[in-house]
Specification:
Layout lengths: L3 H10 L4 E3 L4 H10 L4 E3 L5 H12 L17 H15 L21 H6 L7 E5 L8 H14 L2 E6 L9 H4 L4 H4 L4 E5 L4 H6 L3 E6 L3 H9 L4 E3 L6 H10 L3 E3 L11 H12 L5 H17 L2 H16 L1
Parallel strand pairs: 1-2, 3-4, 3-6, 4-5, 6-7, 7-8
Helix pairs in contact: 3-4, 6-12
Length: 313
């Protein structure tokens, strides 16, 4: 049975189409069908983990056909085989709509971060951010800090703490760290304009937790990824980053799963400035060009499909 409140909304508005996300699948479908309104599920993650989950649910006794399961981004150039497989386990038509990323980054050019980046050489700096929902432990912060210091690479590091925790940045980092890196590093407490930073000409790498939006934005601007996954789908996304050649993952210790400063420094240097990282840098730029060339082509195709669905309804 659907949700009574949502059902009343449908009855009052009588929309031509219902688009719902993962958090409200069943009620929305039931309510829409009751009023003969077409319903479309909008899946915000990629086809690979989705095809795996649906396969395990609908075909638990059948081996998944892609055992490597790298992960996903929602366009064919990265995960075509998973997009093609998804309809066979969902029994529904699937449409890839391309990477949904912010294109307009013409924000406030006077921000201190952007002014500071303007003093650095092209592709000489890494952007370090672990998203708004992943928080480093004290030990992880210290390893990241030492890794950045050992790398010798310029950096902008966005440090965040869980809501309610009153922590002074200076006290959260190794003693003397801010003083030692004051010429080539900038540490920001809280929010920062991620898209604007990634679009800046001085950015040559992104130390990321490999959240979905972060990967999309990084590839949109042709920035290679230094992957430090934390939880949820991030470890799987990090495997994709390596598989398609747009970044490298910082390996954790096999026994205790901890990150190590030396590994962090090594991967940063390889991705940003070493000769051995040329292929990674080139591949990231190639994907940026793919995204630019695709433009809104996939979205236009989706609009045509939705119009046809409404007309049929």
């Amino acid at each position: 049975m659907g949700n009574p409140s949502f059902s009343r909304i449908l009855q009052t508005l009588r929309p031509d189409l219902v688009i719902y996300d993962y958090f409200r699948p069943r009620p929305s479908t039931a309510d829409a069908l009751e009023y003969k309104i077409p319903a479309v599920e909008f899946l915000t993650s990629g086809a690979a983990p989705l095809s795996y989950v649906y396969h395990m649910f609908n075909k638990p006794d059948v081996e998944f056909p892609f055992p490597e399961l790298p992960s996903s981004l929602s366009f064919k150039e990265l995960e075509g085989k998973y997009i093609d497989y998804l309809p066979t386990v969902t029994m529904k038509k699937t449409i890839a709509i391309g990477p949904l990323v912010q294109q307009n980054v013409d924000g406030d050019k006077n921000l201190e971060i952007l002014q500071w980046l303007g003093t650095k050489d092209e592709l000489s700096t890494v952007f370090v951010s672990f998203g708004s929902e992943s928080f480093l432990s004290k030990e992880e912060r210290e390893e990241i800090a030492h890794g950045l210091e050992l790398s010798g690479v310029n950096f902008v590091w966005i440090v965040r703490f869980p809501t309610g925790e009153r922590i002074v940045v200076e006290e959260a980092l190794p003693v003397g760290f801010l003083k030692r890196i004051e010429e080539r590093g900038m540490v920001v407490d809280g929010w920062a304009p991620q898209a604007q930073i990634l679009a800046h000409s001085s950015i040559g790498g992104f130390v990321s937790h490999c959240g979905w939006n972060s990967i999309l934005e990084s590839l949109n601007f042709g920035v290679p990824i230094i992957a430090v996954p934390m939880n949820n789908d991030q470890p799987v996304n990090a495997k994709l980053v390596e598989e398609v050649g747009v970044g490298l993952e910082v390996r954790r210790n096999d026994q205790n799963k901890r990150i190590d400063r030396d590994n962090i420094a090594q991967v940063i240097k390889k991705v940003v400035k070493d000769e051995s990282g040329v292929d990674v840098r080139m591949k990231a730029r190639e994907f940026s060009e793919i995204i630019r060339m695709k433009g809104e082509r996939d979205i236009d195709g989706l609009v045509d499909e939705l119009v046809q669905l409404c007309n049929e309804g």
